[in-house]
Specification:
By secondary structure, the protein is mainly α. It has ten helices and three strands, in the order E-H-H-H-H-H-H-H-H-H-E-E-H.
C-alpha cells in the first residue's frame, strides 16, 4: 500500500497556488479528480468553507468552463469569508497559513482513532458510496486496512474518524471508476496511464514547487492560460488521481 503520509506537523498538507495573474482555484478542481474530499493529502478546512465557483462571462474562454477573472477574486473571497462564523474564519486563516493547532500523536491515540475509523466504515456497509470500499475489502482486506493508509486519511481529517471514513470510501469509488476492479487493491503507477495521460503530467500546467510553506506542506501550482487544451474528463480524472497518490508517497507529506 502506498505510504500516503501527511505532514509531520499535522498542519493541513497541500495548498494550491497560482501565478501569472490567475486566481487560486478550489483544490478539488486540480486535474479533475484531485479532490479535497478523496485525496489523503489535501487539506479540507479552507475548501469545506470557501468552495464557491462563480459563472463569469468571458468571451475568450471555453463555454464549458467556469472561469474567475482576477479582478473579481478578492470580492468573491471576501463575500465567502463573510458568511463564516468567527470560529470558522479563524480555522480557515490558520489552515491557510499553516498554523493550525498541532495534534500530539501517541501510539495509543492512533490505535484508538484507527479502530473508530474502521467502526465508521463498517456502519457505511449498506451505503452506495461504500460499495467500492466493500468490494476492495473482499479482494484484499490487508491492503485496504493498511496501517499507514488509514493513518494518512485520519491525519487529512485531523483525526475525525467519521470524515476520514467518508473520504476513504470516496477514494475507492474514484479509484474503481478510473482504473477498474483489477486495480482496486493495487498501487497506481505511471505505467497504469495511457501515453497521452503520461504526457499530460508534464505539460507544465501543474507544478510542485521545490519548497514547502511554513506549515511544512507541499505547494502545488496550477497554471492556467487560454486557450485551454481540450482534454477528456476521464483522462483528467485518471492523471489527477495518479498525481495525488504520487505526491502522497513522499514520507514528509
Amino acid at each position: 500500500m502506498d505510504p500516503i503520509f501527511e505532514s509531520s506537523s499535522n498542519a493541513s498538507q497541500v495548498r494550491e497556488g497560482s501565478c501569472d495573474g490567475e486566481v487560486e482555484h478550489p483544490v478539488d478542481q486540480l486535474d479533475g479528480s484531485f479532490q479535497s474530499d478523496i485525496s489523503p493529502v489535501v487539506s479540507t478546512q479552507a475548501v469545506h468553507h470557501v468552495q464557491k465557483v462563480h459563472n463569469v462571462d468571458n468571451s475568450t474562454a471555453s463555454p464549458s468552463l467556469n472561469l474567475v477573472v482576477p479582478e473579481d477574486a478578492d470580492a468573491m473571497m471576501a463575500h465567502a469569508m463573510a458568511q463564516l462564523s468567527v470560529h470558522e474564519r479563524e480555522e480557515v486563516y490558520n489552515d491557510l497559513h499553516g498554523v493550525a493547532d498541532e495534534i500530539v500523536e501517541t501510539p495509543e491515540m492512533i490505535d484508538e482513532a484507527i479502530n473508530r475509523m474502521k467502526l465508521e466504515l463498517s456502519m457505511m456497509s449498506t451505503e452506495t458510496t461504500a460499495a467500492a470500499y466493500q468490494q476492495a475489502l473482499v479482494q484484499d482486506s490487508t491492503y485496504v486496512h493498511d496501517y499507514k493508509s488509514l493513518l494518512a486519511f485520519l491525519r487529512a481529517e485531523r483525526f475525525d474518524a467519521a470524515r476520514a471514513a467518508s473520504r476513504f470510501a470516496k477514494f475507492y469509488s474514484v479509484k474503481l471508476e478510473g482504473f477498474g476492479v483489477e486495480k482496486l487493491t493495487k498501487d497506481i503507477y505511471q505505467e497504469d496511464l495511457t501515453q497521452q495521460e503520461r504526457d499530460g503530467l508534464y505539460d507544465s500546467m501543474n507544478l510542485q514547487l521545490p519548497f514547502r510553506d511554513r506549515g511544512g506542506r507541499s505547494v502545488l501550482v496550477k497554471v492556467v492560460s487560454l486557450p485551454l487544451p481540450s482534454t477528456p474528463p476521464q483522462e483528467l480524472a485518471r492523471r489527477g488521481f495518479y498525481a495525488g497518490v504520487s505526491h502522497s508517497r513522499d514520507e514528509e507529506n
